[in-house]
Design brief:
2-enoyl-CoA Hydratase, Chain A, domain 1, six-stranded mixed β-sheet, four-stranded mixed β-sheet
Length: 259
């Protein structure tokens, strides 16, 4: 496991730290892989009763994938499909985790960061936290696997609003949209997340695991076909994608061609 995904233990409560504060905890491919592995390992541990996920520092939960990696790791469809395997492993690890997951959100929670938070059972954020999925500015789409948790939380209409406008919005609006469970003063986020985790850990662990299993079962729908999954990565072979991520790195407004 990379040093940028760190596990802390405090009795029955485990904390997974996205530990890359110098890059606002932006996710590298290795971090995606290791976050899924950490969740899977903790899920198998019967001594764990609750898992908190947080970013290092108090400025950012996670702004999503590190776009600086795109040129070498995600510059075309074939690479994007390989990269998606790491994201899929994290989605599976978090989604199938037996123990309750609490997202401790301080600062920005954008793109892939919102995906991670959406896979948690409780999401507690500060009043100044910021949310959004501005992938339209990169000429990208969210694949089915990445969209599903957001659609389950916010519904199709709100999900489309978030994706089509690409706005960054505040904590109060995120709560109104159903994206967060609780909004507290910024300084109170760690204490509130810890208190929630402690209340969960005080309950019967098997009951918590069964509740998670039963709720997941109620949300299941027919699976997406392989051809539909494959279409999600067509955008990586478009001119708009190259324009979008190069403009992001150069800090200029993209001029999309529609090709």
């Amino acid at each position: 496991m990379s040093e940028q995904i760190r596990i802390e233990r405090d009795g029955p409560i485990a904390t997974i730290v996205l530990d890359r504060a110098d890059k606002a905890n932006a996710m590298t491919r290795a971090m995606w892989r290791d976050l899924g592995a950490a969740a899977t390992a903790l899920s198998a541990d019967d001594a764990v009763r609750c898992i908190v996920i947080r970013g290092a520092g108090d400025k950012a939960f996670c702004p999503g994938a590190d776009i600086g990696e795109f040129a070498s790791e995600r510059s075309n469809k074939a690479q994007a499909i390989e990269y998606a395997h790491a994201i899929r492993a994290t989605i599976d690890g978090l989604q199938q985790c037996r123990h309750p997951l609490v997202a401790q959100i301080q600062g920005v929670c954008i793109g892939g960061g919102l995906l991670i938070a959406s896979l948690c059972d409780l999401r507690i954020c500060g009043e100044s936290s910021r949310f959004g999925v501005p992938v339209k500015n990169l000429g990208l789409v969210e694949a089915y696997d990445e969209l599903a948790p957001l659609v389950r939380l916010a519904g199709p209409a709100v999900t489309l609003e978030i994706l089509l406008e690409g706005r960054i919005f505040g904590a109060a609006e995120a709560r109104d949209k159903g994206l967060v469970t609780r909004v507290v003063a910024d300084a109170q986020v760690p204490a509130e997340a810890s208190a929630a985790a402690a209340r969960i850990a005080d309950g019967a662990p098997q009951a918590a695991r069964w509740h998670k299993k039963f709720v997941r079962r109620l949300c299941e729908s027919p699976p997406v076909s392989q051809a539909e999954h494959d279409e999600c990565f067509d955008c990586f072979d478009t001119e708009d994608f190259r324009i979008g991520y190069q403009a992001f790195l150069a800090k200029r407004k993209p001029e999309f061609s529609g090709r």
